[in-house]
Amino acid sequence: MKNTNIHAGIILIPDFSGFTEFVFNTKLYTGEYIVRQLLSTLIDMNDEYFEISEIEGDAILFYRYDDQPSYQNISTILWKMRNAFNRKIKELRKELSISIDMSLKFIVHYGKFSQYKIGNFKKLYGQTIVEAHQMLKNDFAEQPSYALFSNSFLENSMNRETDLTSHKYDLPEVGTIHYFENVN
To answer: Which InterPro entries match (predicted)?
Structure first.
């Protein structure tokens, strides 16, 4: 059986660090409002570059079929998302007079995957999807605000002259973590 629905593409997963503690320490209706605002901010900053496969709790599974992914384009989107996320947290803290101790991490991966439909839902399938989710659960990061670019993405991307930040940590077996702030 040959599947012609298999394409190479980028997987981007923005995920909130500190989400579980936030949920346990915030009133239900207040937490739901804050999370909805933060997720909407990330979707708005995407500027329809990526499609959304699914939203699960505090994470969005974005994807884009792309034979020649651009490191520069992805880096620009990540900075926009991260800055808008931080602005929205400051705005919500002031609006609601509440402490919001969450930050943002990104997983950027590349590989082949397929897509299928169940009812009105589109689901992604493949090893690339599983690998991206596994990268979310890592012990590599020294601080919560970072972008983890997989080796697969780095090897297949173009325009790498623009660096997300000068604070990076190479993980030969996985990829490179780029920190948004100095690591203390």
So the answer is: Uncharacterised_Rv2561
Strand pairing class (59-65; 51-56): antiparallel
Instruction: Name residue, tokens 């384009």.
Output: 73
CB proximity list for 25: less than 8 A, separation 6 or greater: none
Report how far residue 48's alpha carbon sits from residue 52's, in angstroms, rounded to the nearest whole number: 9
pTM of the model: 0.90
Q: Which domain holds residue 168?
A: 15-179
Query: pLDDT for 25-52, tens place per residue?
Result: 999 999 999 999 999 999 999 989 999 9
Task: Please check whether residue 98 lies inside any domain of the structure.
Answer: yes
Sorted by sequence, the CB contacts under 8 Å of residue 31 that are 6+ apart come out as 22, 23
Q: Give how many domains the chain has, as a whole number.
A: 1
Residue type, 56: E
